[in-house]
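Quarterly update from the structural biology core.
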Amino acid sequence: MGKTAKIKKSIKASRRMHPLAKIARDSSAQAIRESKALGLDIVYMENGKLYCEKPDGSRTEIVEKKKLEKKK
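Predicted structure, tokenized:
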């Protein structure tokens, strides 16, 4: 799925979203934009894996979810 298709899908989903969920999503997006503008790393989970994205756009896998669960 291309980036444009994902954005359109996200917009359609946001119209159906609970107001609090929409506020949380919008706040997260704003925090990510501000962090990138300040040149900070972004850490997020995608498909059960933890990633660190650098300001230049490169990303590295930090740890898989299974490994996180074993550390508890």
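Residues 35 and 42 are 7 Å apart (CA to CA).
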